[in-house]
Design goal:
With 137 residues, the protein is of the alpha+beta class. The chain has 2 helices and 4 strands; from the N terminus they run H-H-E-E-E-E.
Length: 137
């Protein structure tokens, strides 16, 4: 991935989709079998980074892992709030399964369609990062 420019770009629907897809992939890696928690730094910042880092560490400490599958993604809206800040609303469809010490926990499995809102912030030299997120349903 090329180095990010120093000045912020305008968030497009395509860039938003790539960022949300990357977030879903990294979330799966951080909470999955290899517990790639450090990868969260590549996509998140601020309170969202702290929240997901703590969640991923908790999952690892308990000997759990989540298997996530992104089944669908639609970018519903992109609002460029100011230079270097954007709010993105997306509809996601995902399936997830919790494994505890290698065994599937059927009580913690789901397939869901939900709407999420993400605040995205431009960082010079690093590009777009997700600084907050909320499930709206």
């Amino acid at each position: 991935r090329p180095a990010a420019a120093a000045t912020p770009e305008v968030m497009s629907a395509e860039t938003a989709k790539q960022l949300v897809e990357s977030w879903q992939t990294i979330k799966a890696e951080a909470l999955g079998s290899k517990h790639q928690i450090k990868m969260l730094d590549d996509i998140l910042e601020g309170s969202m980074l702290a929240q997901w880092r703590a969640r991923a560490q908790d999952v690892k400490q308990h000997g759990w892992l989540w298997e996530y599958t992104l089944l669908g993604l639609n970018i519903d809206s992109v609002k460029n709030v100011e230079a270097g800040k954007a709010v993105v609303k997306a509809t996601l469809q995902e399936a997830a399964q919790l494994y505890e010490r290698g065994r599937a926990d059927d009580n913690d499995a789901y397939r869901s369609t939900y709407c999420a809102q993400y605040e995205m912030t431009w960082q010079a030299g690093r590009g777009w990062r997700i600084s907050s997120g909320a499930v709206l349903y």
